[in-house]
Amino acid sequence: MSPRKALLCACLLLLGSAAATAEPLKIGLNYPQTGRYKDQGLQQRLGAFLAVDEINKTGGVMGRPLELVIRNTRGEPAEGAENTAELIDKEGVKMVFGGVSSSVAIASGKAARDRDTLYFGTLTYSNATTGEEGQKYMFREPYNAWMTAKVLSQYLKTNHADEKYFYITADYTWGWSVEKSVRKFSGTEDTDANPGVKTPFPRALISDFRDALEKAEASDAKVLMLVLFGDDMVRALNVAYEMGLTKKMQVVVPNLTLGMARQVGPKMMSGIVGAAPWVWNLPYEKGYQRGKDFVEAFSKRYEMRPSSSAASAYSIIYQYKDAVERAGTTKTSAIIRELEGHHYTFLKDEQYWRAFDHQNVQTVYVVRIKDRNTVVSDEYSSDYFDIIDSMPGDEAAQTREEWNQRRKDAGKPTHL
């Protein structure tokens, strides 16, 4: 070993030793360990632990080791808010992140706000999260329903122009946001010409999905919008496949994740179209080295490919670390100032935290599920996504004027 490398190794060992003896810097992960979104929650946990271990091995955050404290939201807003309060008041965490339901993230964010603490939304797609319910303590890492709808509609208007749509939508904040946004940008706002039904949330039954799918089949629509997520999407798509609808209609799942695709399986998922902020093969196709490093580390450690949910949790921890180190403090107000307007490149191309609404602005993608043979040829049987379209973040996101109008319509000030 060269003298220079030996010195570097010694310095890293000293940093690691110092971090190990310093007071831990606690952060809280509030995610569903149980319930219909548990797979997406598990991916957050795996991504978060990987980030924490990597950071601690290189000296922690300002010499302090990160300590991850976790709670189970069970997918319930009240539970999420209660957990957030407990994490801050009893555990002493300096930041909380998580959420797989927008209603959970919004409720949790409010509990953090009341305690002068940052909350990062890890998997929350409702427009409301950084729109009418936006507040200065909430930062959203993934895209929102508006951005999803714009990129999807760009693809659908080119490939399915003038076709009839049928919407099956989860009856809660996220579902309403996505359906409204997709209808707006795809030109399918006429509910007589492009009908739909709502399914109960969070306790829909198989019979609810079957009834909705029978209505879709009877409508003679060519595009089936399944505005469902997690286990609900999995169960509905199983029924749709049994009914032969995946061969009769173009099925679109607005927010696709690797976990959902794996749960359904490549045979039934083949040809399904959706949107995603990130997929694991993107760094390889575009040459994003840091993204490839993450995929390799995650795959080796867990023997599976990471989903966008894992990537979001992983990214949030690194963004928090970097903001703390730029600020030189864990004081919330200082970290907010460091995040607002901050541009960075991490697992993909450039992203930034927009100052006026705390939305993460980033490139968004349309993906289509590959055929079964391609999927299973991957080492981890997870080569699901063919990236077929994209849109730059500034083009996909709401403008300041559009955001201001949403806030005014909700009776909220045009500032956080």
TrEMBL record:
Record-linked Pfam families: Peripla_BP_6
Organism lineage string: Bacteria, Pseudomonadati, Pseudomonadota, Gammaproteobacteria, Pseudomonadales
Keyword Nucleus: no
Organism of provenance: Marinobacter koreensis
Similarity field: Belongs to the leucine-binding protein family.
Basic and acidic residues: compositionally biased ranges: 397-416
Residue segments, region Disordered: 396-416
Superkingdom: Bacteria
UniProt entry keywords in alphabetical sequence: Signal
Residue ranges occupied by any Leucine-binding protein domain in the UniProt entry: 24-371
Signal sequence bounds: 1-22
InterPro entries found in the cross-reference section: BCAA_transport (IPR051010), Leu-bd (IPR028081), Peripla_BP_I (IPR028082)
Record-given protein name: ABC transporter substrate-binding protein
UniProt entry tagged with the keyword Signal: yes
